[in-house]
Amino acid sequence: MNLRRDVFQAIADPTRRAILLLVATQSMTAGAIASNFDTARPTVSKHLQILTECELLEQTQNGREIYYHINANKMKEVADFIEPFRQMWDDRFNKIESIMKKYKSK
C-alpha cells in the first residue's frame, strides 16, 4: 500500500517543525541541520526526506554539498488553508472573553 505523506503529517512532528525553523532564515546542509539535534544523522536525513517529499523544503546542489531551504510558496499554501480556522477560533475566544467579563463584573 502506497501512503502519500501530506504537509500536515510532515509538520505534525516537532523535529520537522524545528528543522523548518532552522532553514527559514538560511539554507543549510544536512550536516549543519543534524548538528542542532541529539539524534543520529540518518534520523535527521529521514526528516529531511519527508519535508522534501511534501515540498516544504527544496534542495540546491552547490558542488558536493546539498543545501536545504524553505519553499515559501508551499508554506503560504499551508498558511492560507489555516487562516480561516484561526479567524474562527479568534472570534470564539473573543466571545468567551466578553461573556467572562460580563460575569466577572456582576
Describe this structure in words.
It contains five helices and three strands, in the order ααβααββα. The model has no long low-confidence stretch (mean pLDDT 91). Strands 1-3-2 form a three-stranded antiparallel β-sheet. 63% of the residues lie in helices and 13% in strands. It has 106 residues and is of the alpha+beta class. It starts with 6 loop residues before the first helix and ends with a helix.
Anisotropy-based shape: elongated
How many strand segments? 3
The proportion of residues in beta strands is 5-15%
Binned, the helix content reads 55-70%
The order of strands across the largest sheet is: 1-3-2
**H/E order of the elements?**
HHEHHEEH
Please outline the major beta sheet.
3 strands, antiparallel
Whole-angstrom Rg = 19 Å
What average pLDDT do the residues reach?
A: 91
Number of helices: 5
Structural class comes to alpha+beta
Question: Poorly predicted ranges (pLDDT <50, ≥5 residues)?
Answer: none
Q: End-to-end distance, in Å?
A: 60 Å
Task: List the defining traits of the structure above.
106 residues, alpha+beta, 5 helices, 63% helix, 13% strand
Write the layout of secondary structure elements.
Elements: H1 7-11, H2 14-23, E1 28-29, H3 30-34, H4 41-53, E2 57-62, E3 65-70, H5 72-105
Briefly, what is this?
The protein is an alpha+beta fold and 106 residues long.
